[in-house]
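In this supplementary section we document a worked example of the pipeline. Step one takes a protein sequence of length 513 as its only input; no multiple sequence alignment statistics are reported here. Step two produces a three-dimensional model, which step three serialises into structure tokens for compact storage. The input and output of this example are shown verbatim.
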Amino acid sequence: MADIFDAYALADAWDEMFVRPGEVRAAYEPVLAALQPIEPTELRFRADQMARAFTDRGVTYAFAGEERPWPLDLVPRILDALEWDLIQRGVAQRVRALEAYLADAYGGCRAFEDGVVPWRLLLSSAHFHRAAQGIEPPGGVRVHVAGIDLVRDEAGDFRVLEDNVRVPSGVSYVIENRRAMTRIFPSLFAEQHVVPVDGYAGRLLAALRAAAPDGAVDPRVVVLTPGPSNAAYFEHALLARLMGVQLVEGHDLVCRKNRVWMRTTRGEVPVHVVYRRLDDDFLDPLHFRPDSVIGCPGILSAAQSGTVTLANAVGNGIADDKLLYTYVPDLIRYYLSEEPILPNVESFRPDEPGQLDAVLDQIDQLVIKPVDGAGGQGIVIGPKADRETLERTRKAVAADPRGWIAQRPVALSTSPTLAGERMAPRHIDLRPFAVNDGTDVWVLPGGLTRVALQEGNLIVNSSQGGGSKDTWVLAEGPTETAYPEPAGTLPEVAPRQHGPDGNLTLVQEGAQQ
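The serialised model returned by step three reads:
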């Protein structure tokens, strides 16, 4: 019988499954034992079967203008209890520091007065909105949901790669990945103590309801989506269904006397919390882009008056500006009086005196990132870039140092991934998701492991052709898994009115985080 790991050769990076050739890490022993007896053709068949099931259920994503089934690899990524404890504490710590920064930046500005962060970083941010100044969100929460991207370096240490606190996406694939894997390898889940992920929707709904304005006895929560043309529409619809709340578009809402109402077939009903999944620029044409038809006119004024809560809050983009990322360890020490649990990747700030020349001189040895980039777009990996790309990037950084950061290249850890009918090492990262209800920052056990499907590639984003893995967090005892069904009966949203051009929606520009 052929062994799918026969030709597996470790890459020049930390391997998640093997210590060295032939020596498997303890957490992976049951998975390896389960996979080895499977014929390569059988494994390929299961993978193809899963892809067809994803397509039939609409679990897809857009790549190069084509709708494809969500790419889930059959080998899970496994984290033992100690590793997960470190990650969840580090992620929660980071979210608390970013929350404190947002409150400060839109409030007293202590960190700027004290010189922890330069004023220029705030005032030059494209995501700094004076309209958010002075808004006091219920419970002091602006970051209701966060996605913190982590990598494991050559020594096996976890490091933070970037923070996402505007509209982080991907959690729906965590849920779908788990559902698919429990059907393909049911016996493995019966033998392993894998912490379930199906509690996410309940946690999110509780946090959103807790964020309702004072006086809302039975808060009504809605998920606001740009519409079916958005790349993350599947996620918006799934989360609304799992939470048992209404999925709405801008046309379904109306603002009157600084209150937000939802049009339904039973008449207008008040809305207290809007989990918005569109960027600030498209949220309210009265304050931001006047040509946006996917937002709701007046919704920001309602938030300013305290009658509705927007989750995540307007203006959060100043906290996941990649230049701000370089200051987060200092912010943790400043606001929390703690040492960072998870370190950053070594980074450089071209906008600081003396650092620009250093970055330009060694640009072929660094990773260069646009501070407002998303989905892996615009990243230049110096050691792998050609001369023309490096020269173009050098000019761009020199012309706009504030628009870029540079980082030391990290050989992201690798995990065995099905390539054809054999296993091969592929680089991965991890996006844990955190939910903040104002009293506790809860981190979903596991998160989304993204995998670069091409050999040697370090860009893992699905928008760049990447795939995913189910992320298992091992518990010390038995666990239970029960998937929630849609809750209750919702009022139907009233029929929508078409605009003068007959279109219902305008596709939101820009990539999801």
